Amino acid sequence: MVKQKKTTPIKTPSLAPSKKFTSDSYDLITQNKPINDISRLNSKQGTTNLLSTQIIKSGDITATISDAKEGNSFTPTEAIIFDYMLAQHTRSNNENSRTISFSVTQYMNDRNLKDRRNAKHQLDKGLQAFLRTTLSYSGMKRPNGKGKRPKDVDAFDGINILTSAHRTPDGIVTVSFSPEFNDIITKRGLVMPYAKATYQINPQKHPHAYYIVRKMQEQKRIAYGEPNADRLRISTLLNAIPSLPTYEEVKKTNRNYSGRIIEPFFRDLGDTPQVQQIFKDYAFLDPDGQPFTKDTYDTLSYEQFINSMLVVTAWVDYPEESVKRWKDNQKNHIDNAKKSKK
């Protein structure tokens, strides 16, 4: 067994250093618009295949995968590996280093995997997909079109995620982010608590659960302290679940919106053990803001479904104190910056 390194305090990129962060239930990863869009790359949706090249669109990100011999270049498994690499980068507490290392044993423990051969295959396939991928990002504009929001990432074109990835025979994985992508992680990111149970979701059994909990964790961090921090409209969530078919796709075929969209959504939310380890309790509110009843479920139309709301009423071990401190630090940082310009 490979000897594991001791956990070190984690520094918050782009803001004043945080105090020590220790949690048995949460890692920290960097999130921003392009990183979040990358986590939702999925070969099932928004994909164009040109000979051996695959082009996948996710939000404002366009990923071009060269030599895409396998049609499923990106699945929820690749998304979890991506998040895992981000967490290793944050754990390193050194934003100037582009290289991270971890063992296959560590990866298996964190993901609760039992089959070492399958774990190595997962990592090899995922890392190869990231090595073959170049990214373009269109950037975000203010709603009125007048310039960019503060902290937005500038538009970019043709950058690599990784420059190298290697696994030794004794199971040590070493990965280097490209200089450009490392800047996206460290210079324009917001630290987000990431429930470790997310790593352990089985995408083969529950293909949609990862995307649901990932999006709700993003919302919790971005809107922390606001009334909407723990809630999202279902229509917004569906846009973050590329493993589900779109309304237009179902309309062109059998129009079974319940069987292909609504039921799989509820099933993965209710039947995935790791969801219960992240959301202590949650509820659905109908378009009128009333809690779902049994009758609501039995008579739910697609229109009612997408205009309903998922509300996480309680989280399991969420690091409230740390996030509140970071939010306060961020506000002070912005206020001081405004004062210095006067």
From TrEMBL:
GO biological process: DNA replication initiation
Domain Initiator Rep protein WH1: 73-186
Domain of life: Bacteria
GO MF term (any one): DNA-directed DNA polymerase activity
Pfam families: Rep3_N
Family statement: Belongs to the initiator RepB protein family.
Name of the featured protein: Initiator Rep protein WH1 domain-containing protein
Lineage of source species: Bacteria, Bacillati, Bacillota, Bacilli, Lactobacillales
